[in-house]
Amino acid sequence: MPPDGSNPLNNAAATSSSALMAKDRITTGRNTTTTPVSPAVPASPSPPTVDTEVKGKGKEPKVLVSNAKEALTGAAQTTEDHLYSKKTKTNYKGQVTRALAYAAAQTEPGWRNAFTKISSLMPTVLMAYVASKCQGQEGDGLSYKTAEGIKSGLKHYFKTELGCLTDSWSCDSDGNCTGNPVHEVAFDRYLQSLKNRDGRAGTSRQSLAMFYSDIVTLMEHLQNPATIAERTEGLCLLFQAFAATGFALWTRNEELTRLQMKDIELDLSTGTGSPFFTITLTFRKTNQADASKANVYQIHPQPDYKAVCCYTKLKAWLQWMERSGRKLRSEDYVFPALDAQGRIKFQEALSQTRVQGWLDQLTNQTGLLAKRNGRFTTYCFRRGGAQFRFMFAKEKWSLKAVKWWGGWSEGEGTGTIMRYLLEEFTCYEYGFSDMLSPSRQNSRHAVFMGETDTPGAAPITQYSLDVSLQSLKEAISVEMNHRSSIQEQELNHKQEVANKALIDSVMELNKALQESFLAAIRGLGHEPAPALATIPVLPILPILPVPAILPVSVPAPAPTPARKQPQQGDVEPPPAPCIPTIKLWKEAVKQWEVGDHAKGLTIPLRDWTGSMRKTDPTKYSQRKLIAKELDRVGRNEGNMNDIHVKATGVALDESEDVNEVEVVEEDDSEEMEEEESEESEEECLIRRKTCYTCDP
């Protein structure tokens, strides 16, 4: 302990904190103010390191006694480097520099040194400086946030440089003051008044979310030739890439300005050859110290959302920088600063103030805030991107994915995130400002975002129905073709197995006949003739290939080949299936011409025999009548609709025209009797094991 009773650790910390402002001198006009700096401690040789070892029963480990002053200096340097972020220290330094310059320019007695030594004038000069910035008439008219920033910077300065440690301020009659002048009562009341003033101005202080429609409008404006001529191509490409990247990664604007080329890995591809690149975001608001918690984002092309496609916008900006400057290096900033002539400063990050200025200008030019109360600030792309992916995109993300992608901390409550995402829509949900409107939808306040199935809420047009019907047709056609292909493969496989089994059986039969024939000859006491040693094998009938299943379609089918009479060696046909129920006349044509494999109708109705028709003669007659009528009108769907129902669908199985069905059944039954009478006895024998009803 030093003789004066002071603590060397506190002295070293005070010395290091003084270095924050002692490095720079603030010069204004002819007056030069130098911040007080503690006298330097003369260097002294460090005592040698002493190794001590206690010998005895239990040996103690070696104790290294290092230089205490070096340790304290290192601790102070660590505190200076890492207690505050680089951005915070820069902001504090700027606030102090401007405040000292303001005081040095004043002519009032004692005001020039008001911020360099403790005096009763400190709160007065401080209030005058803040008022010069925030008052609307003679000052800059800045907001309460500006005053709050000045207070934070000067509070840190007074605390570290002048020893104003307590959160209070008082002065006695002798002019001795204690505490920190930023906590003086009158100054505190003035700051609260500024806060109330801005709150009553009617402008929301929270950043509005930039919706996808706003991004589209902004991108169209930046791609306009007139805008490019006014702001240069480089600036337009820069802001397009900045907005698309912020919308894709949900970043705060200040986080995006710190992005460097070493954080991007270009020219990657997936296992299927799809291109992408990655962006690593290490330090976000919720992660300021742990580099291991960085999120790596894969950026893929987004052809459905071209306005916010980070893949194309960011690559276009990087390519423009290389064409206009030089090849990019790992330490270069992705969004660097630009000088007055538009030249790129690769090693200097774009300032948040510059980004906000561009954003305000573009917002005013495009009129994005004409019907909204607030402004777009540092959170606009983050809030807009999160809301878009959670509620409006075609593939909406889960809350778990939103939480990870947005970089929210693990301890962040779900309620906080939901309020962050749904704040504007919560106001809409619980708002009843249109209660007197005669066109108000009563059900709007009952469901989320007013989505309802009640008539009038969302009118359905003929065009939308046609588009939906066409999409449904295409989906059904693809699905039916897929199923037909699978069934065809299964049938081919079964046919191959059956063919192999049949060939093996015939070979075994031939072998058995040979052996029996030779045994019979030996029993007669005769030697087999040489020619008998090579008895010809019974011929194997060729196996007919399974016909390919026709795809489902309405156009005229291929001509049907002549029906082949079954032979004794053919495989028995499967039992006749039931005719599936239908709702549309096109399905009747499909069942008649190609069948319906998905519903078990593998044989077209026109190929059914008389015995098969007996399973359901009524539906068979209906399908036949509709198919022949389509042929009669030239297979024209329009003629079919105009002549009969003038609609694309008819519930055939629920038809009330009983007389017509009975007539068709009577006429068709005569035809079935004729065809059934022509059926040969051999055909009946072949089909005796099926469900068909034939007289023996």
From TrEMBL:
Keywords: DNA recombination. GO terms for molecular function: DNA binding. Residues 653-682 have a biased composition (Acidic residues). Transmembrane segments: none annotated. The keyword Lipoprotein does not apply. The keyword Hydrolase does not apply. GO terms for biological process: DNA integration; DNA recombination. SUPFAM superfamilies: DNA breaking-rejoining enzymes. Residues 1-59, 648-682 are annotated as: Disordered. Residues 1-19, 28-41 have a biased composition (Low complexity). It comes from the Eukaryota. This is Uncharacterized protein.
